[in-house]
Amino acid sequence: MLRRLIVSFVPALALLLSLSSTTHAQFKQRDWDFTISGSGSNDKDFRTFNAAVTAGIGWFWTDQFEIGFRPSVQIGDGGSDYLWGAFVFGDWHFDLGNGWVPYVGANLGYSFGGGSFDDGFAAGPELGIKYFMNATTYVYGNVAYEFDLNEGLDSGAFIYGLGLGVKL
């Protein structure tokens, strides 16, 4: 599964990086970064509804290294399942100088909730890319593999995100 994801993600990333951009944005030491993403779904008869929202605030320790905090909430099964999460992260950014900023990093946090969700500590690697539409605003996509620290790597799941961000 991971191999298939990498095989499909790497060519897509290469294609995106090959596109030219006239937007030049760079993160600098002490910049702040704010992101938000969301998702939702329901069945064909609109009897169930699931939604998730994740926000993030980050601070650039250096021009490339960002540390931050990401709270999230997920509601499922019409509201009877819910999951709150609080994660810290560290990401290393590779500024390509043309509006594209890929990054790799890791996250660690705690999730707690009700219904079918389990409480526990989770961690994992993450990678993504930011594309600046102007000097301060960007769209981003990321993927992370988060696993329960008590149950090991096999307990993990891939988490995908697409959202908007602002360099402050």
Report the sheet with the most strands, covering strand number, pairing sense and barrel closure: 8 strands, antiparallel, barrel
Tell me, briefly, the overall form.
globular
Radius of gyration: 17 Å
Please give the alpha-carbon distance between the first and last residues. Answer: 37 Å
Query: How many β strands by DSSP?
Result: 8
List the helices and strands and how they pair.
Elements: H1 2-18, E1 32-42, E2 49-60, E3 65-76, E4 81-93, E5 100-114, E6 120-132, E7 137-148, E8 157-167
Keywords:
168 residues; mainly beta; Porin; 8-stranded antiparallel β-barrel; 1 helix; 8 strands
Could you characterize the architecture of this molecule?
There is one protein chain. The chain has 168 residues and is mainly beta. The protein has one domain (33-167): Beta Barrel (Porin). The protein contains 1 helix and 8 strands. The protein has one helix at 2-18, and strands at 32-42, 49-60, 65-76, 81-93, 100-114, 120-132, 137-148, 157-167. An 8-stranded antiparallel barrel has the order 1-2-3-4-5-6-7-8. Strand 4 (81-93) and strand 5 form a beta hairpin. It is globular, with a radius of gyration of 17 Å. It starts with a helix and ends with a strand. Residues 16-22 have low confidence and may be disordered.
Short description:
With 168 residues, the chain is mainly β. It has 1 helix and 8 strands, in the order αββββββββ.
